[in-house]
């Protein structure tokens, strides 16, 4: 770790950079809008009335604080470190995504924007955006890769129930990256009345910092709750990473606690190999520029972006938030990868031992916990972010376990 | 003086408007796109914009995106794009070539290596869509130091407060984007464009060329008449996508050029 750095919590700089990562790599049409968003966010950040509105809705609409839960049977089964789960899957809409969406929609209202667009992979961010738009009576358009529309049908139906228009994206391979391209195209076209609600800690400055700040409620609560439960901070934090917003939210308030080990878990797909059948940008990629920021990307020798591969639609993105790239390069956080197969095993383990059906995204984090916990002492405390619930994934998991659910689908649709 | 600067100086002296055309390098294959490119000056094209294919062209519409996909599927690379320029330069040492695309393939190559290769191949200027003035030290400033023009886009959202920043490190010409939107979308309206061009010309001596939303000889003439010239891309790329013979593509280009030149 770089001892010359006094604090890991001061970024980004005025150019929106974390070291060399981040920045504002967007077309001129969007530039004035991004600058005005930055100005508006800077104002809101120090405005008590903004945070009062957030706190009220976090408590009464989202259900925060989410519990910090000691996973006793899982801990026994693994036979080593004590495992805690930050239960963000209990939030309204079933994932951490709504923490950030609330903040952005309140900002959009302050900016007088009447139309909200979003991209979504697993559909959790799309559902959260559609939900908050319904609450505030705003028009909502969600871009979703056609392949994801197919594998996340329940979330597509939810968004439609909530009054959002879901546009299937067929360009590229029809996943999250392509949905983000089309959302950016929409924004360039409808720049005057539209607010782009980005779902992760990526995109042009100020999005990575702003989304991190909204998601940091996860880590702030965890600090307090862990003090209450154990009288000290955890030894190790573990979170899954696609773009990396749930992870940044958990990690950020602990970055300057040098005794707390931080581990991000990328989607290893079929394995981080030469065939690139994975989404592990840090393990298998190199720095490049895409979607408004410089960060680690899966790309070929000619700088063309590669499609990621993961069982989890929410992790299926060839990039990662720029702050993670920086934390990786300076050595403050460690990044590992977990395969589809390992994530599926952890998914089942969690159901059996804790009565919690996790989303496939945090199943990756859990799989890494299951790998390291047995070899750690019993007084070692691991906190993993249970950032989403698995209801949306049961069809995918059934398919992989060889269970035919087509006959029951109709009965369960209500 | 770059080929771009001398071309605009000549056009100005002749009192003529510029016609700029865009094609994607390697679409649908290198031989066809090189044949089209070689025919462009004869069809009346004053400046050639050559698209560098990219997997994620966020500011482009479907027409250009599909052209990029066809090129990439055909094995197009940065090296082959540069080779296309070298092959063009064997017979034509006068027509300016502007490479247009996105930053990542250039960043991946390394800026200094890329600039040396672009210069040697005979490229005169760059339009890199995802590099606003805020990121000038990435490529804009090194490119101008290497003797290449860096052409910036100004858009309907570039207000008076921001315009000086956009013009500051721009050279060759200013590319005014006629609409808020992506390439190949809504039609440009001369009545909307005229006051915007005047607003920009009040702040710079550089030629102002208008692109996006120009598909016909009539629009080409109408837009060129209120600016220093116009750009057509998607409409030409659509002809290539339709698999038309090279001579038919070039006669369509000639009709667009004729529109601009009669303005």
From TrEMBL, chain A:
Pfam families cross-referenced by the UniProt entry: PALP
KW Lyase (keyword) present: yes
Family annotation (InterPro entries): Trp_synth_b_CS, Trp_synth_beta, Trp_synth_beta/beta-like, TrpB-like_PALP, TrpB-like_PALP_sf
Positions carrying N6-(pyridoxal phosphate)lysine: 97
Root EC class: lyase
Family label: Belongs to the TrpB family.
Task performed by this protein: The beta subunit is responsible for the synthesis of L-tryptophan from indole and L-serine.
Protein name as catalogued: Tryptophan synthase beta chain
Organism: Antarctobacter heliothermus
Native organism taxonomy: Bacteria, Pseudomonadati, Pseudomonadota, Alphaproteobacteria, Rhodobacterales
TrEMBL record, chain B:
Classification via Gene3D superfamilies: Aldolase class I (3.20.20.70)
Reactions this protein catalyses: (1S,2R)-1-C-(indol-3-yl)glycerol 3-phosphate + L-serine = D-glyceraldehyde 3-phosphate + L-tryptophan + H2O
Keyword field contains Lyase: yes
UniProt pathway: Amino-acid biosynthesis; L-tryptophan biosynthesis; L-tryptophan from chorismate: step 5/5
Pfam families recorded: Trp_syntA (PF00290)
Keyword Chloroplast applies: no
Catalytic machinery residues: 49 (proton acceptor), 60 (proton acceptor)
GO MF terms, alphabetically ordered: tryptophan synthase activity
One GO cellular component term: cytosol
Annotated InterPro entries: Aldolase_TIM, RibuloseP-bd_barrel, Trp_synthase_alpha_AS, Trp_synthase_suA
Protein family membership: Belongs to the TrpA family.
Cited function: The alpha subunit is responsible for the aldol cleavage of indoleglycerol phosphate to indole and glyceraldehyde 3-phosphate.
NCBIfam families (UniProt xref): trpA
Subunit structure: Tetramer of two alpha and two beta chains.
This protein's name: Tryptophan synthase alpha chain
Organism: Antarctobacter heliothermus
Source species taxonomy: Bacteria, Pseudomonadati, Pseudomonadota, Alphaproteobacteria, Rhodobacterales
């Amino acid at each position: 770790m770089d001892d010359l750095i006094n604090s890991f919590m001061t970024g980004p700089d005025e150019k929106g950079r974390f070291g060399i990562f981040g920045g504002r790599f967007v077309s001129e049409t969007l530039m004035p809008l991004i600058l005005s968003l930055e100005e508006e966010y800077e104002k809101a950040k120090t405005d008590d009335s903004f945070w009062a509105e957030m706190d009220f809705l976090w408590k009464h609409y989202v259900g925060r604080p989410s519990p910090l839960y000691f996973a006793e049977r899982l801990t026994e089964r693994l036979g080593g470190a004590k495992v805690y789960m930050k239960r963000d899957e209990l939030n309204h809409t079933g994932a951490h995504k709504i923490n950030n969406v609330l903040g952005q929609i309140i900002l959009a209202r302050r900016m007088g924007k009447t139309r909200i667009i979003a991209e979504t992979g697993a559909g959790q961010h799309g559902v959260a955006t559609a939900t908050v738009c319904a609450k505030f009576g705003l028009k909502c358009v969600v871009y979703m890769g056609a392949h994801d529309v197919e594998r996340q049908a329940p979330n597509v139906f939810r968004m439609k129930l909530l009054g959002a228009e879901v546009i299937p994206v067929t360009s590229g391979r029809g996943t999250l990256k392509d949905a983000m391209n089309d959302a950016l195209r929409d924004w360039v076209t409808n720049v005057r009345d539209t607010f782009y609600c980005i779902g992760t800690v990526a995109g042009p400055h100020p999005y990575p910092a702003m989304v991190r700040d909204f998601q940091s409620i996860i880590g702030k609560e965890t600090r307090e709750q862990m003090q209450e439960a154990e009288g000290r901070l955890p030894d190790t934090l573990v979170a899954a990473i696609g773009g990396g917003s749930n992870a940044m939210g958990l990690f950020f308030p602990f970055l300057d606690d040098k005794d707390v080990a931080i581990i991000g878990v990328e989607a290893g797909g079929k394995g981080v190999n030469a065939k690139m059948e994975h989404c592990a940008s840090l393990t298998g990629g190199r720095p490049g520029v895409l979607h408004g920021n410089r960060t680690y990307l899966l790309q070929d020798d000619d700088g063309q972006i590669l499609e990621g591969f993961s069982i989890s639609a929410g992790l299926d993105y060839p990039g990662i938030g720029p702050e993670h790239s920086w934390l990786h390069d300076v050595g403050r956080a460690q990044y590992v990868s977990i395969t589809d197969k390992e994530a599926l095993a952890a998914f089942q383990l969690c159901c059996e031992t804790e009565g919690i059906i996790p989303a496939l995204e945090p199943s990756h984090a859990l799989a890494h916990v299951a790998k390291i916990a047995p070899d750690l002492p019993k007084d070692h405390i691991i906190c993993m972010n249970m950032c989403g619930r698995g209801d949306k994934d049961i069809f995918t998991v059934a398919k992989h376990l060889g269970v035919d659910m087509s006959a029951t689908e109709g009965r369960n649709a209500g | 003086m770059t080929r771009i600067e001398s071309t605009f100086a000549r056009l100005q002296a002749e009192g003529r408007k510029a016609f700029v055309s865009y094609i994607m390098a390697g679409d649908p294959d290198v031989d066809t796109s090189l044949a089209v490119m070689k025919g462009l000056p004869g069809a009346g094209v004053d400046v050639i914009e050559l698209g560098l294919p990219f997997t994620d062209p966020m500011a482009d519409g479907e027409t250009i995106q599909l052209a990029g996909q066809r090129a990439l599927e055909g094995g197009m690379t940065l090296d082959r794009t540069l080779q296309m320029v070298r092959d063009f330069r064997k017979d034509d040492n006068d027509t300016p070539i502007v490479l247009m695309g996105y930053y990542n393939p250039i960043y991946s190559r390394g800026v200094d290596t890329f600039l040396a290769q672009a210069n040697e191949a005979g490229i005169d200027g760059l339009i890199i869509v995802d590099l606003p003035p805020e990121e000038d030290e990435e490529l804009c400033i090194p490119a101008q130091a290497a003797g290449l023009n860096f052409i910036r886009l100004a858009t309907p959202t570039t207000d008076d407060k921001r315009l000086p920043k956009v013009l500051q490190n721009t050279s060759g010409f200013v590319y005014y984007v006629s609409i808020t939107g992506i390439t190949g979308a809504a039609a440009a309206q001369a009545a909307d464009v005229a006051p915007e061009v005047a607003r920009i010309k009040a702040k710079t001596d550089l030629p102002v060329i208008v692109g996006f939303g120009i598909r016909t000889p009539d629009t080409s003439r109408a837009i060129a008449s209120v600016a220093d010239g116009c750009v057509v891309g998607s409409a030409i790329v659509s002809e290539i996508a339709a698999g038309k013979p090279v001579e038919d593509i070039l006669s369509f280009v000639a009709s667009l050029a004729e529109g601009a030149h009669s303005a």
